[in-house]
Design the sequence.
């Protein structure tokens, strides 16, 4: 069951959150000279046109990146994210959106490595074409959760690992928690970011409880909602659960999330969550 295509959703409010957090993590890791690994378990094709048939069908970017474009009052972490979107477009008009791999490709140095996993056949083909010329990047048409476990700890002993499945399979909620438990036992010092959609709040609460009881330390949660939970009728909010976050990330999100919740809200029903699930 591999029907999910991110081209329908590129640049939406969930991407704004995911990539604001991701850029903040990259910037923190880049402060040290030592190289690191970026590993993306569900990379997609990595680059999207906001004028594709899929993007124009849903128009989700209208309530995401397009509301941020050319604004001058952005909080610092959101502004840093916007710099990556601007660089990816290379012109004054917003026509394209960088997926997580493209943002990583722009930000990482020659000595850093990227490992991208994607199981969807068409998405993997497109990803391969997008990144074939970059020697820093290794790609695999493989289950990303299995690929993660097989490739840690990395030789650099530093890593940012993004886990962002589509959750089109209900077992994904359990699988990501089990993978994080295994991964942190093998490589406890990496920074792990788990993206999740809020379609069924019960599933998210269960995931939070399992992580709290897992024995993993230093877990923070950041969630952005544009309207109240509806219950199985569409994504109304999304979040990032970060293990071993940069010490600056909490402050970044305290500035960013109130701004984004107000700007991107539907009918003034936006909200956000900033929580420490497990202390250090």
Sequence:
């Amino acid at each position: 069951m591999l029907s999910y295509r991110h081209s329908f959703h590129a640049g939406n409010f969930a991407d704004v959150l995911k990539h604001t957090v991701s850029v903040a993590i990259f910037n923190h890791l880049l402060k040290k000279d030592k190289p690191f690994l970026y590993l993306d378990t569900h990379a997609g094709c990595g680059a999207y046109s906001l004028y594709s048939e899929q993007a124009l069908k849903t128009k989700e970017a209208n309530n995401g990146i397009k509301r941020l474009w050319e604004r001058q009052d952005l909080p610092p972490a959101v502004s840093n994210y916007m710099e990556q979107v601007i660089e990816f477009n290379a012109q004054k008009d917003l026509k394209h959106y960088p997926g997580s791999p493209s943002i990583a490709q722009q930000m990482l140095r020659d000595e850093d490595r990227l490992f991208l996993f994607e199981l969807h056949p068409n998405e993997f083909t497109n990803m391969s074409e997008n990144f074939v010329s970059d020697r820093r990047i290794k790609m695999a048409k493989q289950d990303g959760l299995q690929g993660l476990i097989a490739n840690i700890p990395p030789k650099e002993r530093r890593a940012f690992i993004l886990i962002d499945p589509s959750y089109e399979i209900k077992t994904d909620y359990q699988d990501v928690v089990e993978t994080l438990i295994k991964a942190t036992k093998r490589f406890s010092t990496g920074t792990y970011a788990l993206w999740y959609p809020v379609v069924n709040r019960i599933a998210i609460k269960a995931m939070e409880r399992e992580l709290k009881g897992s024995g993993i330390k230093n877990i923070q949660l950041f969630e952005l909602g544009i309207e109240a939970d509806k219950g199985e009728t569409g994504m109304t909010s999304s979040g990032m659960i970060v293990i071993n976050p940069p010490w600056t990330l909490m402050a970044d999100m305290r500035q960013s999330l109130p701004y984004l919740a107000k700007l991107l809200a539907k009918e003034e029903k936006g909200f956000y969550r900033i929580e420490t699930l497990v202390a250090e």
